[in-house]
Here is the input.
Amino acid sequence: MKGLEFKRFSLGAALACALVIPLQAQTSYSALNEAPHFFLQEDGGIIAKWVEDGELITQDFEPAQPIDLPEFAALLGEELDIPEPRIYPALWEMPEKMLVLSDVEGEYDSLLRFLKANDVVDDEGHWSFGKGHLVGVGDMVDRGDQVTETLLLFYRLSIEAEAAGGHLHFILGNHEVMFMGGDIRYARPKYKEAAALMGIPSRALLGADTVVGRWLRSCNSIERIGDLLFVHAGISTATAGDKLDIDAINTDIRSVIGMLRNEIRDVDKKILAWGSYGPLWYRGYFGVQVATYGPRQSVEDLDRILNGAGAKRVIVGHTHVDKPTGLYEDRVLAIDVTWTRPDDVRALLFEDGAMVLVDIKGERSSMELKAR
Here is the structure.
């Protein structure tokens, strides 16, 4: 096994069989590096593609052949497991311990450091949280320049967690759905450049025929764990209707993932996935942007939605806060902090019936919640 830090694409003799495709006229890409993308083939094989110093490198794997890229072992493990896709339930019992974070936005190095400090992964980056649950409340993509690394880490940990009796909950955010739907305005230029080298549109980097893209399409947009509701942005009264139907919302959003926005003909599904009042975009809990992403929700409406879902609180990302913050007398817990300032990162740790804040050094601090 390689050391802790992810090595940036210095390939050794172990990959001598890989096909290297040099750049020709695209000299502006000469400094481009991009982690591996894994493309599923109809015969069951896999083609891995990555970029090193502006050169596209590919390696073919036959059906059932181990996916072994030694130079990326710190990121992928010794072999990359690719189980059959599975849609997980949206309702869970409360685990004995659970760590909740959001909006990493491609800051892989900070994420890995955080998970190590809080004993979610060991020194080699493998799951060490036992039967605990890790919850990511959306927007792991865009803005940062290690988006692929971030997604591959979550993907691998989802497999390792299940093997240990734990679970990783990856709640979709608007930026995951945007990228898969071809809206890459917030992505770093390197992803458009890497896709161009591979001869595909940018959204195909997370296409349904990729390992990570297929996995993302199995993830939910809303889940309830114990009496806590998890959604990236929030639940508006328009989304909830008479009673929040979590499974229906997950199914409807999943059905349009990967489609361009103007390709979606079902208006209700389009509003859920892309609408400003939808669960991936709504900001009605906050005093900002309510004219566009509101309206501001009343306590009565929030209680009706929570009660209908069997929840006491809702945990959201999407709207930035300086530190995890309770709103509506702690009915809403907002946790979208800035991962580009690692010392300011905080997440929620639920353990033995209590909740504390944890930071990137693994230190804990209290956050008193009003009884519900």
Remarks:
- The chain has two domains: 13-76, 91-366.
- Residues 147-163 form the longest helix (17 residues).
